[in-house]
Amino acid sequence: MKMDVGIVGYGVYIPRYRIKTEEIAKVWGDDAGSIKNSLLIYEKTVPALDEDTATIAVESARNAVQHARINPKEIGSIYVGSESHPYVVKPTSTIVAAAIDAVPDMTAADYEFACKAGTAAIQTTMGLVKSGMIKYGMAVGADTSQGKPGDALEYTASAGGAAYIIGKDNLIARILDTYSYTTDTPDFWRREGQEFPSHGARFTGQPAYFKHVIEAAKEIMKRNNLKPEDFDYAVFHQPNGKFPLKAAEILGIEKKRLETGLLTPYIGNTYSGSTMLGLARILDDAVSGDRVLAVSYGSGAGSDAFIIEVTKENEKRRNSKPLKAYMDRKEYVEYSTYAKFKGKIKGVKLEKP
Amino acid sequence: MSRGVAVHWRLIPQRYNLVGTECKNCGEKFFPLRQLCPNCRRSGDVREVKYSGEGEIYSYTIVHTPSEGFEFMKPYVIGVIKLVEGPFITAQIVDCKPEDLEIGKKVELVFRKVIADGSNGIIRYGYKFKLKE
Amino acid sequence: MSGRVAIIGIGITEFGELWDQRYRDLITKAGTKAIIDAGIEGEDIEGLYIGSMSPGLFSGQEHIGALVADYSGLIGIPAVRVEGACASGSLALREAYLAIKSGEMDIVVAGGVEKMTDVSASYATVTLMGAGDQEWETFKGATFPSIYALMARRHMFEYGTTIEQISQVAVKSHDNACLNPNAQFPFRVTLDQVMRSSLIADPLRLLHCSPLSDGAAAVVLASEEKAKELSKNPVWIRASSTATDTLALHDRKSLSRMDSTILAAGKAYKKAGIKPKDIEFAEVHDCFSIAEILAIEGLGFCGIGEGGRLTEGGDTALDGRIPINTSGGLKGKGHPVGATGIAQAVEATLQLRGDAGKRQVKDARLGLIHNVGGSGATTVIHILEVD
């Protein structure tokens, strides 16, 4: 049985503060020019001391409810994907559920699958909607990711999130298909109790990111008899600015189709938020009939691919809080302030003794 | 001075979503929630209302000598916000520079971490405001 | 019983960071001085009311009534702690007054004490904010300076009050403190120094704020009959009144006036059958300089919104039309919160007895003391006089 399932509304959030590549390079004795060239990253978002994954998830979720124009009590599930949940035990999703007043007739859980936990949440939600178990469900991808001081990750690891409300009617975009490509590939990890993640350096490229993104993209196109030129937009997970461009090149997707959703050069890698924010940026612009190929990537490893077709409804109720507005309002901070906000200075905290 | 988690938990609807009270008798709205309308007392009848989070700065100050636990937020802004529905509320105003502040400026609700109960305790989230963009 | 009530004895400790003295030492010293001053014996005392805001948090000690009775050698007598934040002292005075007025007792001691320096400044800040609304002010990071700063900003906005005018309050308080041997800060400050002192809660700066202090004060009250028998210079309590307002500042009808003061003042003047202009001097609650401006307006010494100009014009100085805070006020004398209301009564008694030395208001016969709890949720006023 063919039944429409798709996006009823979406919301985004990125913090106000930014730090420039030059500012980080200065501290670690790197050459900013070559970092910008090799990673294609100019600046990234910095969460304030009172922001974390839960607050970012809530802001995006509230924007999504506002955009979807639905009663939040009709949301039957909330899944929040992140690798920086504020609690190890105690869900972020219940905080979001309470903050959008969707409680208590609903289900909720937190997801973790490196940078694709949010898109995995979309897939789960699609299943619940399609099966008729719920009317609407919310999938959130949000992170305030960390890189070890001096590690290349520090140039990219940023903060941001996006929330999608999945349902059957009043869709601003239909999700025509989804497909995942999953293997056990240890390219990036963080052990229990460890503050910072570790990674396999160049191993994160070919056998990890590229293998999974490309296989997932190829297979979903094959299954739907579509070619790269059938898509108006494409968005891939963006650990830096370079990887998605190279993946597109391998797949034969024109660069211009990728550009709208390519955000990492300006906001950094928002991890679980990355593909979802890229897609949101595309939806902010897209018109009826536009087709989007979205492929996330999560280390460990897997890719979730989606084929999305934009409806008339998207133009009829344009998101009033587009990502561009959040990207344009910004304030630069120095490394010292960034280090304070991120708790990189020992003893800095926002807590009662 | 960390207290039991219930102290925060029971206030979650108010702290996350600005749930207050309206008196069905005189129509006055209050935040936070009250069991009794102070105008009508026993002849009143209160119901819960949720405020929009839109308002304006009624007064503000920039705190340089913080309260315990807020040391690393300094300087931070404490404002009295006049909500569009009528009630006044004390809250932090974030993401702004002191020179951007002015009585009468429009603000809107944001969801932020307020304070955690030590490094092992719960994180108390709640309302703050930012200048309306 | 409709007889009058008099203050027949006063005692006060020095105010300041008194590292070598305990809570119980302070109140015992003040009490002993008051009893000696009254010329009575311990056996004469029928009741004890102690104003103290937060000994539990400052010193980990509650059950203050019994503690003070015990260390004063008064075991057996009724002893009660009274609490109304920074107005605790005046509330204790009022309870003692009412105990005599009711006819139940003839000689009662009212004391006030706080020991604030055994905790960190930030902990003290939180403890003092117990006088505000824990759930809706303190939780958000509000401090008392910030609460009064919100009032100051509004007063400046609505009435054009200037930071110079607010600062002049502190300059005057320090001038007066120089003449008070018990004051914590007996030194002068210039307007420039006040306005350049470090920011605490903009627009309020360090020198607009009263300090954290240790100290105690006590007064002996007696019925008219006993006072006439025991005292050659009784100071009569002509009126005692108190009023409340919302606990949280944001629930007030106005941020730029103090309604509990206006209400309590109205009641006090009515009871005394006098007008504000009849008052010859006043000790008012200047926990922050803006609070003195709100106080003198609320007490009717000038119109609402005119307090800044009244201060700037010198009317509230020692030689002015209505001298305010001849003791140095909370700013110059120090503010061990529970002791403050009683310390105000001590100062007024000295003035009315003509014993205020270099800070004596000439021929003073009628004075007022004004004590505020929190941001104005409680005001207590007493009008004192000599025959």
CATH-derived architecture of the largest domain in chain A = 3-Layer(aba) Sandwich
Number of strands of chain C: 11
Percent in helix of chain C: 25-40%
Low-confidence stretches of chain C: none
Report the end-to-end length of chain C measured between terminal Cα atoms: 20 Å
Q: What is the average of the pLDDT values of chain C? A: 97
Number of helices of chain A: 13
Share of helical residues of chain A? 25-40%
CATH level 1 name of the largest domain in chain C:
Alpha Beta
Rounded Rg of chain C: 19 Å
- Would you identify the regions of chain A where 5 or more consecutive residues have pLDDT less than 50? none
Give the biggest beta sheet of chain A: 9 strands, mixed
Please describe what this structure looks like.
The complex is a heterotrimer of chains A (353), B (133) and C (387). Chain A has 353 residues and is an alpha/beta fold. Chain A is built from 13 helices and 15 strands. Chain A is 35% helix and 23% strand. Chain B is built from 2 helices and 8 strands. Chain B has a domain at 53-133: OB fold (Dihydrolipoamide Acetyltransferase, E2P) (Beta Barrel), CATH 2.40.50. In chain C, helix 4 (88-101) packs across helix 14 (337-353) and helix 7 packs across helix 11 (289-298). The mean pLDDT of chain C is 97. With 387 residues, chain C is α/β, with parallel strands linked by helices. Chain C folds into 2 domains: 5-120 and 212-235, Thiolase/Chalcone synthase (Peroxisomal Thiolase, Chain A, domain 1), CATH 3.40.47; 128-209 and 237-385, Thiolase/Chalcone synthase (Peroxisomal Thiolase, Chain A, domain 1, 3-Layer(aba) Sandwich). Chain C has helices at residues 23-38, 55-58, 64-71, 88-101, 121-128, 144-159, 163-177, 191-196, 224-230, 259-272, 289-298, 307-312, 329-333, 337-353; strands at residues 5-12, 47-51, 79-82, 107-115, 199-202, 204-205, 214-223, 235-244, 281-283, 366-373, 378-385. Chains in contact: A-B, B-C. The interface between B and C is large, with 36 and 37 residues. Strand 15 (351-352) of chain A pairs parallel with strand 7 (106-117) of chain B.
